[in-house]
Design goal:
The chain is an alpha+beta fold. The protein is about 55% helix and about 20% strand. The strands form three sheets. A five-stranded antiparallel sheet has the order 6-5-4-8-7, with no helix packed on it. It is elongated, with a radius of gyration of 28 Å. It starts with a helix and ends with a helix.
Length: about 290
């Protein structure tokens, strides 16, 4: 069960990775500063003193800004690490063991950065040397950063399974976002179950009424949908529509034979005979270039 869930989670990260944009990074930065202000105000209110209100606010605001502001850098790095670890390691225990190790390492680094910043910019006590500051920071803040790492992992897992659930309910084909690559898999719902079909195993697709037939490794998989939905998802450099009822993978075309009405008969490596209609004759140079 655990292995199956890991396989689905891993493949969903390949198909639908989290992509960082400038807008998302700015949101993280804004949220970090906002959290620093709110948490700083809460801590000041718990230890309010009219004579030292300004000093307390400065101290706690600076402390929280260091704690959460640095996650503007660590958050994209950690999410990127999770994605790549899942793609590299197929074994569930190796993958999550490495992620836990990375969480511990990142928590250690974040805590050390926090201690260094506080010691350099705010510490004025001669009794608190670097060693004492670092030990206190590890003791007080390491668990916070580690739990935050685990929370990010949990949120990432939830995001992927929400994506998978939507894909299942919609019954639409879903593929990785990199349309220029033949790597990855087509994620479909077939007979009530989620299936991943590697693009390198698909020879062609055929429309059949309100269904689409996917031919993969000599097998035919029938799913609900339209050919247009698949064409929009498949990488156009590798899959071409040759007829209103057919899409073929370019390197699977074995033979082209002209017909009397300007159509062509397309024979795949596996021996399937398809038709290329004159409405799609603009793809002929590409197909002929593979011969």
């Amino acid at each position: 069960m655990v292995t199956s869930l890991h396989k689905v989670f891993r493949q969903s990260l390949i198909n639908h990775p989290f992509r960082w944009t400038v807008r998302r990074i700015l949101w993280v930065l804004t949220l970090s500063i906002f959290s620093a202000i709110i948490l700083g105000l809460i801590q000041v209110s718990l230890r309010y003193d009219n004579n030292e209100a300004e000093r307390w606010f400065s101290f706690y605001f600076f402390n929280q800004l260091i704690t959460w502001g640095q996650w503007t850098l660590w958050l994209p790095l950690f999410v990127w690490s999770i994605t790549n670890v899942m793609q590299v390691f197929k074994e569930v225990y190796k993958a999550y063991a490495l992620i836990i190790f990375l969480s511990l390492l990142l928590a250690f680094v974040a805590t050390t950065v926090e201690a260094a910043m506080w010691h350099h910019f705010y510490n004025t006590s001669p009794d608190w040397d670097w060693g004492r500051v670092w030990k206190a920071s590890i003791s007080n803040n390491f668990s916070t950063h580690f739990l935050f790492c685990l929370s990010i992992l949990l949120i990432t897992v939830l995001r992927q399974f929400i994506y998978i659930n939507k894909a299942i309910k919609s019954s639409l084909p879903t593929i990785r976002m990199d349309k220029g690559s033949i790597e990855g898999s087509l994620m479909i719902r077939s007979q009530g179950q989620l299936e991943f079909i590697p693009l390198q195993e698909i020879s062609h697709l055929a429309a059949s009424g309100s269904y689409v037939e996917i031919f993969s490794n000599g097998n035919k998989i029938v799913v609900t949908g339209t050919l247009k939905q698949f064409v929009e998802q498949l990488p156009p450099s590798h899959f071409l529509r040759i007829h209103r009822s057919y899409v073929v993978r370019v390197d699977q075309v074995a033979k082209l034979a002209p017909l009397t009405n300007e159509d062509y008969q397309v024979t795949t490596i596996n021996g399937h005979q398809l038709r290329l209609s004159r409405s799609y004759k603009d793809v002929l140079p590409i197909l002929k270039g593979t011969k």
